[in-house]
Amino acid sequence: xxxxxxYPHCPKSLLRSGAWKQEQxxxxxxxxTSAEVTLAQLRMPELTIDDIEQAEADSLxxxxx
Length: 65
Fold this sequence. Notes:
Layout: H1 11-17, H2 34-42, H3 49-61
Helix pairs in contact: 2-3
């Protein structure tokens, strides 16, 4: 993945966040999966992590059909 341009809303908040300081990052094994992030953002109690993981797998499997 590469980044060509970034348009932050507030540069000071980005600097204060520590996003560029590796010592503040979570270890790789402690970072949430994309399915966990999606589940947290959707806030739909009827969905499970398995539902979202299956939807992600299906979207990759059937992307170009």
